[in-house]
Every structure is written in C-alpha cells, then in structure tokens.
Amino acid sequence: MPKIVVNSLKFYNQLKEGAAFTTSSYPNYNLAGAVGERIRAEIIINVSWESITTPLPWVSPADRTAYGNCFTYTVSEKKLERSSGSFRMDGFSVNDEIKLWWGDTNGDSSWYYATIAAMSDTIIYFVTNPITLGNVDLVSGQFYNMQLIGISPLTALIFKYGLVPNDEAFGDYSKVSQNEQAYYTSGIGTGSPRDTTTIEMTKIGNYLDWLNKPITGNINAKCSYVQDVGNYQQFKIVHDFLNIFYYFSHN
Predict the structure, then answer these.
(1) Partners of residue 222 on adjacent β-strands
(2) Are 8 and 44 in contact (CB under 8 A)?
(3) Of 244, 251, 250, which Cα lies nearest the Cα of 177?
(4) In CA terms, which of 141, 167, 188, 190 is 20 to 30 Å from 157?
(5) For the purposes of burial, counting CB atoms within 10 Å of the CB of 201, is it exposed (0-12), middle (13-18) or buried (19 or more)?
C-alpha cells in the first residue's frame, strides 16, 4: 500500500487564535480544549509508493540465495517481473509514471524513467523501455538491488477523522450516529509547476449530523499541495471541528 507519513500535527484553539482562526500563534501538539470549543487541526502528510527488491542496496552474488524477492527485466517485452509480493498492493496502477533505480556490481547507479502500460500483481509492462535522462536504456537482467518509485502527481485525497477515547483504537465513525466521517477533494497540486492553492473538501455520504458547521457554509476541511520531498509528495490538511463530548453508559 502507499506509504503515508504524518510529518507534523498541530492543534489550534479558537479561544486563543480568534473566532475565525486569524492567527496561528499558540499550537498544541496534543488535542486539548474546552468542551464545545472549535479546534483547528493542521496536518502535514508525506505520501509515496514504491516497490523494492530485498536486499537494498546491493549485496554480493554469494548472498543472493538468502533473499526471496528479485526483479527480472526483459527489454524485448518491456516487462518487469517480480518473484514475490505485489505491485498493486504497493500502490502502482496503469498509467503511473515511475522512476527506477538499480546499482551494479561496481557500485554505479542510475535513475530510469517510464510509464506503466499494463500490469498484474507480479508483472509490469512499460510503454517504452525505461531510460535515463542521458538516454541510456535499462538492460535485460535479474536484479536483487532495484527500487521502483511512483512519481505521478497525486491530485485527489480522502480524509477521514474520528474523535475517540484515549484508550480506544482509531475509528472514523461518529460516536453519536455511527455515520462515517470523511471528506474528499480532487484537483490538488495540478499544473507544472504544481499549484499550491488551498482547495475545499466536501463530505462523503448523505448524513450531516456529524458535520460541525464552521463560521459560514458547510466546509470544514481544506487541502493543498506543499512540495516534493525526496520520494514523497507533501500535502497540508486543515480541519476545523468541535471538541464535543459523549455520554457513555456503564453497568
């Protein structure tokens, strides 16, 4: 599955920052506030998807039999095949743009670029043979030291949230109604260079009972593209919600 890393998470209280959160001067790094107070969560996430052989980086041929996953590339078919695992489970799909790294026995390495034309769990067919920026084609062979990374711009996002007791596992269903609490948006970071404009997110589903009204309208969450960081694409989510309380029955 794609890798999602929370780079930072901050909470802002309406009492300190103003009714419309006109300032961001007093961040909290744990959720805290008065019951019924409006809270703003500011979340920076890094997203990537990749497939790698084991091991990475390169090991000597004498050690290769100890590892179960390798990639085999066939130039004549523009085909990359893996011995175990799943490209789909790693997050890849048709039309993805990728970059591919491998290191040879002399320690040299190069990045090759290509687009996925067709695929299954264990096989990828490229539109053209992967090629470096210096126009060097990838050669046929079996690789125990290869890394495949998705580089297509991610432009859509689903954001789910939940308020649960500290000792309970995360869940994105309302404690009051059991309706799922989720937002969606598309068109994030389009163009070249990528647009960093903040885009409003809309709720998923037909129920509004959990949708905490902001100052105006029905928009509680927004998202924007921030930057590329190494192999990650970085996004910012801003979510306003009420610090509501629940009644729990006890026998």
Answers:
(1) 200, 238
(2) yes
(3) 244
(4) 167
(5) buried
CA–CA gap between residue 198 and residue 218 (Å, rounded): 16
3-state secondary structure 159-223: EECCCCCCCCCCCCECCCCCCECEEEEECCCCCCCCCCCCEECEECCCCCCCCCCCCCCCCCEEE
203: β partners: 183
Q: What is the separation of C-alpha 123 from the centre of its chain, rounded to a whole number of angstroms?
A: 23
Euclidean distance between CA atoms 185 and 79, whole angstroms? 34
Spatial contact of 87 and 71, defined as CB atoms under 8 Å apart: no
